[in-house]
Amino acid sequence: MSVEFFGVGGPGQIGNLKKTQKAQADKKVEGAGEDKVQFSSVLQDVNKAKATNQSSDAERTERVQQLKAQIKSGSYEPDLNKVSASLLQFLVEGK
Question: What distance in Å separates the CA atoms of residue 95 and residue 92, rounded to the nearest whole number?
């Protein structure tokens, strides 16, 4: 006597179904290492800008150290025209 439920007939076919499902799962695991990620050009541009900014920060830090050394030694002489222009701009714009 054979009983069929939902198109599956008998224990033999159920066993084959499990083997088929396991084989499909194994194939998925094998292909998992082939995923690739590709970032948008905007994100790549942001990363380039960050790298450039980091080099600018290093240059700025070096310049600040030079200015500190000049101030400490008493040899620092600021450009008075630039200082007065900045002060006027600050007073006019209120920034």
Answer: 8
CA 7 to chain centre: 51
Q: Is the model more confident about 1 or about 52?
A: 52
Between the alpha carbon of residue 13 and those of residues 5, 17, 21, the distances in Å are 11, 6, 12
3-state per-residue secondary structure call for the chain: CCCEECCEEHHHHHHHHHHHHHHHHHHHHHHHHHCCCCCCHHHHHHHHHHHHHHHHHHHHHHHHHHHHHHHHHCCCCCCHHHHHHHHHHHHHHCC
Domain edges within the chain: 41-93
Compute the average pLDDT of residues 8-17. Answer: 57
Summarize pLDDT for 54-75 with one digit per residue, the tens. 778 888 999 999 999 999 999 9
